[in-house]
Design a protein that fits this description.
Shape of chain B: globular
Low-confidence stretches of chain B: none
Helix content of chain B: under 10%
Number of helices of chain B: 0
Low-confidence stretches of chain A: none
Radius of gyration of chain B: 14 Å
Distance between the termini of chain A: 36 Å
Radius of gyration of chain A: 13 Å
Oligomer: heterodimer
Number of helices of chain A: 0
Number of strands of chain A: 11
Largest sheet of chain A: 7 strands, mixed
Shape of chain A: globular
Structural class of chain A: mainly beta
Largest sheet of chain B: 6 strands, mixed
Chain lengths: 115, 114
């Protein structure tokens, strides 16, 4: 089945130790998104890629970076995780949204714990 | 900036009954889309229903329907014949036409009682 896959599902890292989260998709969608969702809160968009074009949200800390080496894969890098970065990280995809309001499809998320 | 407000942090419903979840939004745009997403515990977020602002007819998907009041900027979700599997966090979301960005409300946790 076409889908959005996130690995790992659970990630534990130490304070200040760089960590990379992975997302892949078999939907061949143009756009890939990374959201941060803290406990009992709404998802918050960090950034997205429209094909190779990177679009950062104004309030996303510099500590968060992303890479998209090809259509299928997108990575979230946290350079120096702090305790406040512990959260669920959601990847989502959509087709070209310049069409008419295309739906975003979400992966299962990676829960990040920072010790 | 566009905002989405869900005023009910938690709701509960008896199995087989009907429940309505509220959502209001604020925008000055005329071209936009509204969504309800469902996030079950420890499972991924899935789309329940979507509504295009230019359509006057309310969207329906099986047991799920919306009451879209454009002038009032209201977008409520009605779940009929509630099932245990409907228990989840429900997020209302807004997206401006041509934009990639979804703006979410804070969510409503729905409990379904047997």
């Amino acid at each position: 089945d076409a889908m959005v896959i996130q690995n790992p599902r659970y990630q534990v890292t130490q304070f200040g130790k760089p960590v990379t989260l992975s997302c892949s998709q078999t939907l061949n969608h143009n756009v890939m998104y990374w959201y941060q969702q803290k406990s009992s809160q709404a998802p918050k968009l960090l950034f997205h890629y429209y094909d190779k074009d990177f679009n950062n949200e104004a309030d996303t800390p510099d500590n968060f970076q992303s890479r998209r080496p090809n259509t299928s894969f997108c990575f979230l890098d946290i350079r120096s995780p702090g305790l406040g970065d512990a959260a669920m990280y959601l990847c989502a995809t959509s087709r070209d949204p310049s069409g008419r309001g295309h739906t975003q499809y979400f992966g299962p998320g990676t829960r990040l714990t920072v010790l | 900036a566009q905002t989405v407000t869900q005023s009910q942090p938690e709701m509960s419903v008896q199995e087989a009954e009907t429940v309505t979840l509220s959502c209001t939004y604020d925008t000055s745009e005329s071209d936009y889309y509204l969504f309800w997403y469902k996030q079950p515990p420890s499972r991924q977020m899935i789309l329940v229903i979507r509504q295009e602002a230019y359509k006057q007819q309310n969207a329906t998907e099986n047991r799920f329907s919306v009451n879209f009041q454009k002038a009032a900027k209201s977008f409520s979700l009605k779940i009929s014949d509630s099932q245990l599997g409907d228990a989840a966090m429900y997020f209302c979301a807004y997206r401006e036409g041509g934009s990639e960005k979804l703006v979410f409300g804070k969510g409503t946790k729905l409990t379904v009682n047997p």
